[in-house]
Every structure is written in C-alpha cells, then in structure tokens.
Amino acid sequence: MKLLVCISKAPDTTSRIAFTDGDKRFDESGVQFIVNPYDEWYALVRAIELVEAQGGSVTTITVGDATCDPIIRKALAIGASDAVRIDANPTDSSQVARLISNYANDKSYDIIFAGKETINHNSSAVPAMIAECMDLPYVALATSIDVDGDLSTLNCESTGGTNNVSVKGSFVLSATKGMAEQRIPNMRGIMSARTKPLTVVEASGVTATTEVSKFTLPPAKGDCVMVDADNAAELVRLLREEAKII
Amino acid sequence: MSVLVYIQTQEGKATKAGLEVASFAKNMNVGDVTALVPGTLSGDGGLGSVGVSKVLHFSEGVTDNSQLSKLTQAAAQSVDASTIVFSGNNDGNSIAPRVAIAMNVGYVSGVTCLPEGKTFTRNVFSGKATAAVNVMSDVCVISITPNSYGIKSDAGEASVETFSADIGAQRVVLNGFTPTSNDGSVPLPEAERVVSAGRGLKGPENWGIVEDLARALGATTACSRPVGDMGWRPHHEHVGQTGLTIRPDLYIACGISGAIQHLAGVNQSKVIVVINTDPEAPFFKAADYGIVGDVFEVLPKLTEAIKEL
C-alpha cells in the first residue's frame, strides 16, 4: 500500500514561547524543534506498522522551509521510506492543505495520515481540508485502523464515545492517542535516514485566507492561595465566595 | 447578513454545545441567526430561547462529514450567511474545515470570545498564547471552543422549516457507537467542573474518593497521562498535551505533579485547585488554590464539605 503522512515542525514542549516582528511571528531563536507529537507518535508510527505488515511505502510530506529538514530526517529514521518537502512558509491551514493536495492529487495514495492537531497552531483543520480539496472521505480522531484490501475499519473518538466506521478506497485520517506507541529511532534507522530521498518541491501559488494580526502571551498568574490540609471547608468557602465557581 | 449555526441535538433538543454556539452567534450582532439541525428535532429544540430566529431542519440522520459539509453549504447559501459557526467539538472540527475549503473562505478554529469585526481570538501553542486572526474573505467559517462562551438566554421562539439538499453519497459508514461512560456525567470537553487525578492515587482501586468528589460536585473525572498509559483509567479521560485539551470553570488536580505537558491540556481552566503532598510540585505555580496534603485524607473531607453546602 502507498501511504502519505503529513508531518509538521513544532516547538519542543518545554520551549519558551515568545514573539517577534511586532508580535506577528513566533520567535524561533533558540527553540528546539520536534516532529509534532500527534503526527509522529500516532500517524507516522501506525503508517509504518501497516507497511511493515502488508508491504508498500510510507512517504512523509511537510510544508515548510529548510529548517524542517532535521525533523524530516527524524521521521525517516523512525522508518518512513522517503520524504517530500514543499518549500513554502505557509501562514494558515488552508494554504498547507491546498499545497499538500496539489502535490498528492495525481499520486494515488491509498491513505493520507495526519496527527489530530499541531501543538503550536492547535487548529485540527489540515486533514479535513485536504480531504475536501481532494474530494476524499475523512475519518477524524482515529484511535485504531485495520486495513483489509481496499476496506479500512477504524475506531475514532466521538462526542461521548467511540465510533466504529469503515471506508472503502482512498481516504484521509487524523490520528490520536491509541493508534500506536511512540518509537525511538535506532542507530541503523538514524544512519539510513541520511541517505533516504528527501525531495524538495517548489510551492505552487496558493494564497492564505486568514492572517495572524497579533500574538499575545497570557497575563501572569497570581499567587496560589494555600489552604491548610485540615481545613477543606475553607477551600469550599473560597471557591464559593471568592472564586464564585461552585 | 445572517449567521448560520450548525447544531447537534440529543433526543430532539439542542446539545449544550449547540446552545452555546447559538448564543455566541446571536451576540455577534451581525444579523439574524439561523440554525441548521440535522437529525431529530422536537419543537424548536430550545433554540428560540438562545436567540435563534429560524431553524432549518434536515430530518435524515447523517454521520459522514463530507455529506454534512455539503448540507451546511446548501443551508449557508439559502440564507446568504456571512458567518457560519460550529462548536469546536469532534464533529464541528471535522465538518467546518471542509466547508471553508469548499466555499473558498477563511476558517478560524477554537475561537474563545466574541470577535471585533472579522478579527477572531483563539488559543495557540497549547494555551500558552493567544492569536488575533483576521479573516480576509467576505464570508467566514469559525468554530467555538466548548465552554469558552457559555449559554446566554434570549427569550423567543424560532420558526422551524424543513430543509432538503443534495448531500451526495455516504462514503464513511458508521458500524457502531460505544459510549465511554454510562454514569450520565457530562463529556469531558463540555464539562464545567472536572476532578482529575494522577499517580498520587497509587492504584486504580483507589479511585472511589475521586469519583465521590466528582459526584458531590457534579463534575466529570479526568486523569493524567501516566495513569491512562498504565491502564488505571481509560484513555479518553487523559487530559494534557497528547490527550484532551479542556477548559472547565473548575479543575481540581489530585496527586498530579503538573508536568508542562499536563498543564498544556488544562491551563485554560478558569480556576485550578491543586492537592498534592509535595509542596514543590510545579502544578502549584499554575494553581489558584492549593492544599499541601495527602489526597487520601483531603479528598474525603472536601467531599463532605461540599455535601454540606
């Protein structure tokens, strides 16, 4: 089977969040980047498992500039067969989705994987948008997938429970916890990743439909009010009279 | 100008998330609010009481997001909607981006407060910052973070019209649905009060005191990642960076140290209470109220104190 996995660059969880360029842009200086965890732990690893079991290839695709290359090599080290990077600096989800769709349209991928959201933009939009651009079915928040010929059966999170769904032929999915376990690349993977193909593709002219006018950091949290462990009633009083929350 | 809201119902009535998006749409003050309701509907589904003037009812139950996207587009066209509003829950997040692409208009997800013109505020970097986002197209599609705006009543009754549209073929087949819990508690993303526990509980057999507190408060239970990974609690209860992001009014963390990955899922809570034996637990820095103490002693006392209210 021929699988495509969307991989995004995200700042490491412990990064200091700061902005530049009149608070319009994330300040990347000194920031350690990682593969967006949902893309890596759940989407990529499950795609690799499927290909290991049934044969085929896993291609990763990333929209971004050359600063994405280290995280793409990490994905190759974990076990992807090859990688594509669309050379662009997108400013919104629709741009990312249209660029990926334009590339994937004539390549006949069986399944397109993505994480359920990125930890920096938190939009949960790109996979649904790719599905719409390519007129494909979309299964959101998949926690498991089994593939039997052209029939895929998935469990996915739904409001208040789990849906079991099936879909025939090509489709797009977003992956969340449960799909797979994180894989640490071994030395052989890291060595072979250096020579696996990473194709850089020029971006076609796709314009954004939204723009960030300003990023703002939240106001500093006030001090924590400490309550004595023997005085639970005092906490209840504070929650009722001061916080007015119960 | 009008606003279209996509509404889900349960037993014919708009869900809590549905009433919230309708309230939000009404208070945007950019025109009449029309609700699109697929599936079962009784009366106006309670939508008139939050300011909806007209309900378009599509009586078939539909689950495929590509069909629901086509349905929304048809409804948006029929009322000439300038804004289309979804709840940012699992279903809304899978339909809204499709609608935006199909209509070639801007999409802003996870909106947390009323916009200024076409500038919407949303959380980014897992709650560590907010972004003001301008939509450059005439029409915009947005989704609202559940429990960020609330339900505002607005006396009135909505007219109900039957709506039909060509929604294409179903391609994703729903074989079955398994509810995550049958205790009647509110699903985590919509819960106003959450009691969450971590490794400090020492084992799954000790969760009774957490559930007792949750019951007394009318809260939903949650857990930290290690607890989910060890199988002490089901995965769907895991809140944090790689689990659910929630925004309750009250989040009580019991025996959770407060790693940065956990905070990313809960730092938008309005009030955070932390109970932990370790006074150095990083969670206290993010908390509004804290108790340094043993959860096995503190929780039963807290439950009793709440029952006495």
Structure, explained:
The complex is a heterodimer of chains A (246) and B (309). Chain A is built from six helices and 15 strands. Chain A is α/β, with parallel strands linked by helices and 246 residues long. Chain A has a single domain, classed as Rossmann fold (3-Layer(aba) Sandwich). In chain A, helix 2 links the parallel strand 6 and strand 7. In chain A, helix 2 crosses helix 5 and helix 3 packs across helix 4. With 309 residues, chain B is an alpha/beta fold. Chain B folds into two domains: 161 residues, HUPs (Rossmann fold, 3-Layer(aba) Sandwich); 120 residues, TPP-binding domain (Rossmann fold, 3-Layer(aba) Sandwich), CATH 3.40.50. A seven-stranded parallel beta sheet of chain B has the order 7-10-6-1-4-5-11, with helices on both faces. Chain B has a five-stranded parallel beta sheet with strand order 14-13-15-16-17. In chain B, strands 2-3 form a two-stranded antiparallel sheet. The longest helix of chain B is centred in the first third of the chain and has 14 residues. The model of chain B has no long low-confidence stretch (mean pLDDT 95). Strand 15 of chain A pairs parallel with strand 17 of chain B.
The assembly state of the depicted protein chains is: heterodimer
Helix-strand string of chain A: EEEEEHEHEHEHEEEEHEEEH
Distance between the termini of chain A: 54 Å
CATH topology group of chain A: Rossmann fold
Query: Major beta sheet of chain A, specifics?
Result: 9 strands, mixed
**Main β sheet profile of chain B:** 7 strands, parallel
Rg value of chain A: 21 Å
Largest interface: A-B, 80 and 96 residues
Individual helix count of chain B: 7
| Strand numbers in spatial order across the main sheet of chain B | 7-10-6-1-4-5-11
Using the alpha-carbon principal axes, give the shape of chain B: elongated
Briefly, what CATH class of the largest domain in chain B?
A: Alpha Beta
Contiguous uncertain segments of 5+ residues of chain B: none
Helicity level of chain B = 10-25%
Tell me the overall shape of chain A: globular
CATH architecture of chain A: 3-Layer(aba) Sandwich
Strand content of chain A: 25-35%
Helices and strands of chain B, in order, run as EEEHEEHEHEEEEEEEHEHEHEEH
Number of domains of chain B: 2
> CATH homologous superfamily name of the largest domain in chain B?
HUPs
Level-2 CATH architecture of the largest domain in chain B: 3-Layer(aba) Sandwich
